[in-house]
Amino acid sequence: MTQVQALVFDVFGTVVDWRGSIAADLGAWGAQRGIACDWAALADDWRARYQPQMQRVRSGAVPWTVLDALHREALEELLPKYGLQHLDEADRCHLNRVWHRLNPWADVREGLRRLKSRYVIGTLSNGNVALLVNMAKHADLPWDVVFSAETFHAYKPLPQTYLGAAHMLDLRPGELMLCAAHNDDLAAARAQGLRTAFMPRPTEYGPSQTKNLGPEQDWDVVASDFVDLAQRLGV
Amino acid sequence: MTQVQALVFDVFGTVVDWRGSIAADLGAWGAQRGIACDWAALADDWRARYQPQMQRVRSGAVPWTVLDALHREALEELLPKYGLQHLDEADRCHLNRVWHRLNPWADVREGLRRLKSRYVIGTLSNGNVALLVNMAKHADLPWDVVFSAETFHAYKPLPQTYLGAAHMLDLRPGELMLCAAHNDDLAAARAQGLRTAFMPRPTEYGPSQTKNLGPEQDWDVVASDFVDLAQRLGV
């Protein structure tokens, strides 16, 4: 473990609470405008389209498309179901950019600041660069480097994302650790030789979440949150 | 100017004093080992190979090559001239990585911290990603995003570097400003529609520098240094 030089983080779910943030952000926005909507349900429906959309890009069925555009496509499909089809272009843009305004879990800022004191810390996210940079400004996330699927024109869990991050940092795969709340992401990283750290986010999908409640492999580190991760890495 | 959302910075010369840093870093290293060398002259010779090397990549005469590798190639050519041909592989690596250990001009940290409070700030440098990330850790440069020629597989002043940074930030070219101490870099950015800020670094090439002592066009902002740039941008 002493060879690890850099930590890259999955973002949606691991760093930020997308479901709670969307419900709070759009809830406040809707309240101001007298728009009633089950925003958490919209968030769930929105997120449910994420993997199928990316799979169409991964398979080559559609050309490279950034996540902002996939989000917008899915939003257009969902607006009628939630009675929001009357929203104009500016409002639709504002809704779509809610993914740029997500908030971190409570332990994230302290954990990242401690980890940054010893390691290069970065994102390794399917979010596009603008989304990740704007989110970092919004949420005060002190990344040293922002790696995105957009950097590699490939969505996780394709190998070129994990290997691309290591290559661009001039590190061997074993000198890079992926930190994530999702066992499948970690499995794909481990298959490419990366080190792995798991921390559960048991309410990412709301109170009745059933997946990723615990580690499914003997990950190099299993932590309760980012502060515990810093502790376990000795910083 | 109020439409500018993000500032990207040329790095070598504009942010960091490569010549002075190399002389100080390798001077101290050489002194410890009893190696006498005119390190500033080596730095000048090294840097003189930079544009011709990149031109071979830009023209397609050689395939895409990151700057660390170009630096190493040039170093190998220069070692005999400076009586350093006896250095082993570890020492050659240490010398080559001096470009990761460059120090900023005195005004840089304060200026960047102020600018970061309002703008997205990033690099737009011909240095490779690992070089820029390691330099930022070494020199405490609080970038929001690291754009490198490596990101685009193209060296400045090719248009895809300036346009690529704007595109990845989801900005129009006019919403992005290049900040540089080099008139030719700014001219190439302006040709693509970027905003431009010039600040002179009159000792970048040592005490007898003759180029880039002042602005050669009516750049959008002309500042004396990064603190003055922050002042002029109202932050």
UniProtKB/TrEMBL annotation, chains A, B:
SUPFAM superfamilies attached to this UniProt entry: HAD-like
Top class in the EC scheme: hydrolase
InterPro entries xrefs: 2-HAD, HAD-like_sf, HAD-SF_hydro_IA, HAD_sf, PGP-like_dom2, S-2-haloacid_dehalogenase
Protein's job: Catalyzes the hydrolytic dehalogenation of small (S)-2-haloalkanoic acids to yield the corresponding (R)-2-hydroxyalkanoic acids.
Annotated Pfam families: Hydrolase
EC nos: 3.8.1.2
Protein name from the UniProt record: (S)-2-haloacid dehalogenase
Gene3D superfamilies linked: HAD superfamily/HAD-like (3.40.50.1000), Putative phosphatase, domain 2 (1.10.150.240)
Highest taxon listed in the record's lineage: Bacteria
Regions that span the bilayer: none
Annotated family: Belongs to the HAD-like hydrolase superfamily. S-2-haloalkanoic acid dehalogenase family.
Keywords of the record: Hydrolase
Keyword Hydrolase tagged: yes
Catalyzed reaction equations: an (S)-2-haloacid + H2O = a (2R)-2-hydroxycarboxylate + a halide anion + H(+)
